[in-house]
Amino acid sequence: GENVEQHPSTLSVQEGDSAVIKCTYSDSASNYFPWYKQELGKRPQLIIDIRSNVGEKKDQRIAVTLNKTAKHFSLHITETQPEDSAVYFCAASNNNFNKFYFGSGTKLNVKP
Amino acid sequence: DADVTQTPRNRITKTGKRIMLECSQTKGHDRMYWYRQDPGLGLRLIYYSFDVKDINKGEISDGYSVSRQAQAKFSLSLESAIPNQTALYFCATSARGGGTEAFFGQGTRLTVV
Questions:
Q1: Which chain A residue has the Cα nearest residue B45?
Q2: Nearest to B30 by CA among B46, B49, B47, B45
Q3: Which residues of chain B are modeled with pLDDT < 70?
Q4: CA neighbor of A23 nearest in space, from A37, A11, A9, A39
Q5: Separation CA A102–CA B44 (nearest Å)
Q6: Could you say which of A1, A9, A98 has the minimum Cβ distance to residue B100?
Q7: What is the pLDDT, as a whole number, of residue B98?
Q8: How far is A66 from A32, CA to CA, in rounded Å?
């Protein structure tokens, strides 16, 4: 089955700095890579996703990059704000089964 | 608003008791999932169902069972609860086909004492 690894487990940045979270996956059949944000006491919610036919996707201050050859993908948050503080999860799935395999999560703390 | 609803939101139960967590959705999705969240371990898949007649074990199904009563309802049972099943449980749904977003319920915080 798929194995998704996520690093770092915690990340502390100063407001305005950039934050990068990295994930690797093992199954070359995986072709959909969503990122979820979970605020304290809330449910995970999708913030951005990327499919395997695309190398990069941007949405305002967040971007995701995908390297299929190396089987890794990353979340980039620029100009971080205190409200970006949350736990972020990466995930991988494929068309055949659409099971979502999640990374272990990154707790991002943005210091004002 | 179409949504994914879990009941109860919080539950404390004793070791050995049977407990059921319920999930219902109004999104019209075929696929439903139960995940368990523990600190530092992310979201681990317990069971998943791609339609009413299709139930599959996930990574950590031991000690759990499920029932898909209808397209909109997917229940998770702990037949005999034990303390290491204390966790935050999430139900999720997704549409048929690959590359579609998973939508999560609000979560159920279960404590087994």
A1: A101
A2: B49
A3: 1-2, 98
A4: A9
A5: 7
A6: A98
A7: 67
A8: 10
